[in-house]
Specification:
By secondary structure, this protein is mainly α. The protein is 80% helix and 0% strand. It has one domain. Helix 1 packs antiparallel against helix 5 and helix 3 crosses helix 5. The model has no long low-confidence stretch (mean pLDDT 91).
Length: 146
């Protein structure tokens, strides 16, 4: 059932997904073709905010921090997974793999390689601040609009 907390959490994580994606673009070479990288991550943020954070809102301020962190961790995992699968499919179309098992295994190696970019202090601080904002705003929305 739609609630204000779900909407607020979805919008917060969508904005965070888009903003961090744009930040990541500045850390990679200019020749990198990103396509709809930011839009996909914003869409993931929208869904994860609605499902993960929005459903858990309304349990108090201390739980809000955990909810925000859980939402951001889920966003990072699914963002890395979706982008790694996209990269793996692109490589599979170029016949870089000998079979589906090798392609599947390489997906996780690609996730690790993409995840190394997230070690940047600016990206980490953005994710932490975004987690706190998402958790607290969704908690405020849950308390104010029932």
């Amino acid at each position: 059932m739609p609630t204000a907390a779900k909407l607020v959490a979805a919008l917060c994580l969508a904005a965070l997904g888009f903003g961090v994606s744009e930040l990541i673009k500045t850390l990679l070479p200019a020749s990198t073709a990103f396509g709809i990288f930011s839009i996909i991550n914003a869409g993931l943020g929208l869904v994860i905010g609605w499902i993960v954070v929005g459903n858990r809102a309304g349990r108090g301020q201390s739980a809000a921090v955990g909810n925000g962190i859980t939402g951001v961790v889920a966003l990072v995992f699914w963002g890395l997974f979706v982008q790694a699968v996209n990269e793996m499919v692109g490589q599979a179309m170029k016949h870089r793999y000998e079979g589906p098992v090798e392609a599947f295994a390489d997906t996780f190696q690609i996730m690790v390689e993409f995840g190394e970019v997230l070690i940047n202090p600016t990206v980490l601080m953005s994710l932490i601040c975004g987690a706190l904002v998402t958790g607290f705003f969704s908690e405020i929305a849950a308390g104010r609009w029932r």
